[in-house]
Specification:
With 256 residues, this protein is mainly α.
Length: 256
């Protein structure tokens, strides 16, 4: 899911390097790339290689460092720098990044699903649905939203709750084409609930039960959930933007 063609990756590396050169001066490009590094152990291993050109490890070899990134991370960096990614809609990298930023539990659950698509397709599907449920519940905790999720609601009920919170149910004041898609979204939620309950092994099954066993179907489910999840998150951010509070300082608080 994070593989891109070598020729595409090579071209994208050049575009990312050019974007860095245009955006940052001096060692700022080094500082920028260092912020993307996630260390995995005490030996300096991480999600890519920080390749320095000096013994003091102050300045990166930008070309070598960018080349060491896998396709998914490279696309994330490209998106952050405003580089266009033609022929590729990186919904899953963006979705995973959104979850890591604001939806910790959903992120852990989706990461498990992401890793198990090939090896354990039915479990991956069930976990992906659980991640979507978690996202909706987290959004509906916002005090600015009057509609709250039902404690024991399944994905279909949760979807109905959040669509009502957004005022985008099929009878809402939105474009007719969007109403049609939203109506389909409710049907998708019903199908996802059935997949988690009946076609995955998360709730326990007996010998002979039919569960999702092919990776193609799991990819389809995970990609569908990614699209739905991104839509719900983006609507939430638009309708309920983050509020930044500034503490008022009195003259006694000033350091001079």
């Amino acid at each position: 899911m994070d593989k891109i063609l070598p020729s595409y990756k090579t071209d994208m590396e050049k575009k990312v390097r050019n974007a860095l050169d245009n955006k940052y001066q001096g060692r700022d490009a080094t500082y920028y790339l260092q912020n993307w590094f996630e260390e995995y152990d005490n030996f300096g291993n991480g999600n890519f290689c920080l390749c320095y050109i000096d013994n003091n490890r102050e300045t990166l070899d930008l070309d070598a460092t960018i080349h060491s990134m896998d396709g998914e991370l490279l696309l994330k960096v490209a998106i952050d720098l405003g580089v266009e990614t033609p022929h590729y809609i990186p919904s899953i990298p963006i979705f995973r990044n959104e979850l890591k930023t604001s939806y910790e539990f959903a992120s852990r659950t989706f990461e498990k699903a992401f890793r198990e698509v090939e090896s354990d397709p039915d479990t991956a599907c069930g976990l992906a649905v659980a991640a979507l449920e978690s996202i909706i519940k987290e959004i509906l905790l916002d005090n600015r939203i009057s509609i709250k999720s039902r404690d024991k609601g399944d994905i279909h009920k949760l979807m109905d709750d959040i669509l009502r919170a957004y005022s985008i149910l099929p009878n809402g004041l939105i474009f007719s084409e969007i109403r049609t898609l939203v109506s389909g979204l409710q049907k998708c939620a019903t199908a996802l609930g059935d997949i988690r309950g009946d076609k995955s092994s998360l709730h326990g099954h007996k010998t002979g039960d039919i569960i999702i066993s092919d990776a193609a179907s799991a990819y389809f489910v995970v990609n569908a959930i990614t699209t739905i999840g991104l839509y719900l998150i983006q609507v939430y951010k638009k309708q309920y933007p983050s509020v930044i509070y500034y503490n008022e300082l009195s003259s006694e608080d000033l350091p001079f």
